[in-house]
Amino acid sequence: MPILTEEPRSFPDDLLLGGGDLEDRQWSVAYTKVRQEKSLARDLHQRSIPHYLPLIPKRHVYRGRTVNSHLPLFSSYVFLYTTDEERIRSLSTNRVASIVPVRDQGQLLTDLQRVERLIEASMPLTVESRLRAGQPVRVKCGALAGMEGKILKRCRTTRLLVAIEFLQQGVSLEIDDHLLEPI
User: How far is Cα of residue 179 from the mean position of the Cα atoms in its chain?
Assistant: First the structure.
């Protein structure tokens, strides 16, 4: 039984496909006040401000009942693709603690596209709070064929790490060694 239906992760829906066509737009990251990610995304959507909020399904047992919800993948972060004027309007929502500029626009877009692909593949994701150097690899076959990432070893399992370098965070999933090839 869902508390709320799944909300769109991005506005517009094709935001991550091309990164937009206006030259005066820049990616930035809104660091939100506590537990304000989804509310900020709703406010931005109402104001037609392009944004991306990666959401993942989460199952909880509450008073003996299973409850399904969708939670932000990266706590307190919403990715904005805005003009200067839209960035100022996003601050007026009173849900943003600060806005952090992004130096490497192309790298952030690539990272966000990888995360979105993992979410769409319905893979069980684990947020990694610290990035570690590892061997770069590519998935050889399956739903994630061609995806690149770094290996993160943990408790005798191999995890593929897809990093958002800007946030110094990433997501990982458990994957068998035989599906990976070194780059």
Answer: 24
